Amino acid sequence: MAMSSALYLPAIQGQFGSWLYYAALMRLADLQERVRYAREIHDNPKLSEMIQRSLDDKTRAQDISDYLIKTQDRFFNSLVVGVHGGHPQWHPFDVKVRNNAHLLSDIDDKDREALGYLEFNGKENLFALDGQHRLAGIRRALEKNAEIGDDNVSVLFVAHQTDAKGLRRTRSLFVAINKKAVPVSKRDIIALDEVDLAAILTRRFVDEQVLFNRGQVDIDRFTPSIPAQAPALTTIGHFYDLIKLVLGDIGARRGDDELKLATRVRLPDRIINRYADEVLDYLERLIALDPELNTAMRSKTFGELIPVGRAAPKHRLMFRPVGLTIMMRLIASMQKEHTLAAAFKLVKKVPLELTKAPFKGVIWDDRRNRMITANASLALALLQYMLGERKADTKLRERLALAQGVSGGSVRLPARFN
């Protein structure tokens, strides 16, 4: 929908490949009022509806809205906006030299005209090529809090032509921007994210807590597993995942939505500190399920004790990252039927040696002396059955038969715990 009023935006003109673009500053309120979604790049209404359906993800729009409203240090990268119709005008500044350090002739003629104002007369059609979910979140946020409408966001404007060639060119740009974008890696989230609660707690624990800050967590590895001879219990990547599981269980047991925003909106420090205490207590109780692991983690010689716990004849379940995950998921799976204290009491029945049921032949290959981590979910299901938290069914028997390489009729489920 074209607007009737003129708008002047401070901008820089640039060229990248075949695209002439303008990097401008635009108020969120003006963005909300003037910029639409990218339906215009398809003349087929059904394809336009496909783009719209992708924008109907209310969770993403709400997350972005909450981030804008609740985060003082909010920041967006540039949106890319296509322009067609109207008559946009570029007004370059008249550059003058104000000191004797250099001459005006030292600056390239083209660069002198790179700074200026971009004028829209209000009759243009503006549509987001990149940043459509951000646009949806901005609209939702401004409905709740109009004050943030004066925030300036960086917008890259590119010209769009409505003929067949122009449509193909703009669609190609749309795909290049959205398909080629590289998501933030787990490594960067753990190292740098000041919003993600699990990342904040991961860094805090490996910096400050005696159970984790002396090398018990390998901060150079981000894999879900660790070599058997490694002196560390687990990797920082797995430790981060474990903390996310703990937070998920805490949040589910509490029955509130506070943690649903904890990857997009930084919680107040007092709440972060409260969760830090709860998660640390949870992890300490988890580690204490195996007295040998608890002793090793607190020892000055943990680097010698951890590999010993993994090797023969011990083969301790919880000395392996996958074992920690299985026990963690087992406790979390009981959240509807048991209190946290009751769940920890129940899982004390679980054998701590990989050479015992249900682990032998499922996640532990005793002939080759190696882990079979692909069967971790089966081991969890068998433990739930053995604890009386799950009924025996054909599917469980079939999964066990497949893991053991036998026929379904000959397989027997492990005995239940007393």
Structure description:
43% of the residues lie in helices and 14% in strands. It is of the alpha/beta class. It has 2 domains: 7-181, no CATH class; 187-301 and 329-334, no CATH class. An 8-stranded mixed beta sheet has the order 3-7-4-8-2-1-6-5. It has a two-stranded parallel ribbon with strand order 9-10. Strands 11-12 form a two-stranded antiparallel ribbon. A hairpin with a 4-residue loop joins strand 11 (364-365) and strand 12 (370-371). The model has no long low-confidence stretch (mean pLDDT 89).
Write down the domain tally. Answer: 2
Overall pLDDT: 89
Tally of extended strands?
Answer: 12
Number of helices: 16
Largest sheet: 8 strands, mixed
Uncertain runs with pLDDT below 50, 5 residues or more? Answer: none
- Which term fits the overall shape? elongated
Share in helix: 40-55%
Helix-strand pattern: EEHEHHEEHEEHEHHHEEHHHHHHEEHH
Strand line-up across the major sheet: 3-7-4-8-2-1-6-5
Q: Which band does the percent of strand residues land in?
A: 5-15%
Please render the helix and strand layout as text.
Elements lengths: L6 E10 L2 E9 H7 E2 L8 H11 L2 H13 L8 E6 L4 E4 L16 H4 L2 E6 L4 E6 L1 H13 L7 E8 L4 H17 L5 H7 L4 H12 L8 E2 L15 E2 H19 L14 H20 L2 H8 L3 H9 L10 H12 L7 H7 L17 E2 L4 E2 L4 H11 L7 H11 L14
Parallel strand pairs: 3-7, 4-8, 9-10
Antiparallel strand pairs: 1-2, 1-6, 2-8, 4-7, 5-6, 11-12
Helix pairs in contact: 1-5, 3-5, 7-8, 8-9, 8-10, 9-10, 9-13, 11-12, 13-15
